[in-house]
Amino acid sequence: MNANIMNVDYSTKIPNNVNLGEDRQVLKALEGWHPGYMDWWGDMGPEGFQQSLVYLRTAYSVDPRGWAKFDYVKMPEYRWGILLAPQEENRVIPFGENYGKPSWQEVPGEHRAMLRRLIVIQGDTEPASVEQQRHLGKTAPSLYDLRNLFQVNVEEGRHLWAMVYLLQKYFGRDGREEADELLRRRSGDADSPRMLGAFNEATPDWLSFFMFTYFTDRDGKMQLHSLAQSGFDPLSRTCRFMLTEEAHHMFVGETGISRVVQRTCEAMSAAGISDPTDIAKVRALGVIDLPTIQKKLNLHYTLSLDLFGSEVSTNAANAFNAGIKGRYHETQIRDDHRLQNATYPVLKLVGGEIKRVDEPALTALNMRLRDDYTQDCVKGMLRWNKIISTAGYDFKLTLPNVAFHRAIGEFKDIHATPDGVLIDETTWNKRKGEWLPSTDDGDFIASLMKPVTEAGQFASWIAPPKVGIDNKPGDFEYVKIET
Ligand SMILES: [Fe+2]
Ligand SMILES: [Fe+2]
After folding, report:
1. What pLDDT digit, counting tens, does each position of 418-440 carry?
2. Which of 295, 305, 346, 461 could anchor a disulfide with 359, C-beta 3.0 to 4.6 Å?
3. 59 vs 64, 317, 369, CA distance in Å?
4. Cα-trace Rg, the chain
5. How close is the Cα of 109 to the center of ligand 1, in Å?
6. 333 vs 94, 224, 254, 337, 362, CA distance in Å?
């Protein structure tokens, strides 16, 4: 591989490794889109702190050894760039009807609409999460956390750029129109909402932020993995590089929740509390009780499950057959990669009971991806539970049953407990406060959300991280807040 290809071209306004300097038409389209993006960032990006110096990493190359460079940057001056993973020589389409044929460097005409739709949906989630998180800066529990929030935000901004590049380069006029629409929709807006449910929900506090980055960014990870398998090579390469950034977002979620759990356990131990479900006593210590953490988890996990769509879906089958969207780790799966005769077990509601039913594997691809997602979610949970058991408490955080609190798919019209027991509407209304955050829970958490802006200091409800970002010491000033 040519070493120069790995370095970003800073000769234009937009850092990139796609030779934008010589692609005048796309460069012009992107430069035309840039002011609207900056307006959007100003209106809907992080509230405040725009003149603060933030210790951020910027992608200047996709080289695995050195793609991230850390330095103080003002967020509006962040270099949002267009970076694709290096092209693999002789890459073939790894699944579907075109299995084994050379991957496409241009959009295949017959799949154009489907491809554009998938890119737009992915693109829409990126700015949405920035909008959802825009108020969090003013209640950050530390400068370390504040910096992590902003890192996630600027990278979601870059992911929007990544999708906009594909739209503008490969989809002509309608691609440019879609790129403008991505700046027009707003999370939670009644008239012009973002495209997917979970991206229109509020992220009211930092526990929600950590749950979001753990559970909802992980849906993003699964979707990006599936698109990284795409036969449309530019999409594959784009998603592969986005995944390297996405890993940090889930790290923020996993360690964030770990630190909350740890602080709660430490405070309970110090106060001699033996029953972690004694909510009033635990809350009096200024930490978040474990049952409330479980409720937040229930909410964000189930909202994220809905992002996978219906368990049985012909759209998913079509995208797979077409070679547009593959399975998680497609190239590592040992089967025919066509799935014409295969089946997959799907959880369905049969005669009022939750049962596994074999469905054609092609139409069950959403279910399969969701199963892979759930497995991936379990890993962090084991770490959180380890913290709890090490502290000597008999309490386990668990993932609720897939039938619980669903708005999409097989279980959207029924009610179930987190254990998967079907219940009627009256029971649901009476008991849902036991399983999902109530207004009281929200008010309590909100009462803890006081900003801590002194370097090295942390709010009462969260433990410090084990290591700093870029190995910086504990009292490092991650954000130099302007006064
Ligand atoms: Fe993203
Ligand atoms: Fe993300």
Report:
1. 999 999 999 999 999 999 999 99
2. 346
3. 11, 35, 29
4. 23
5. 27
6. 10, 17, 27, 8, 15
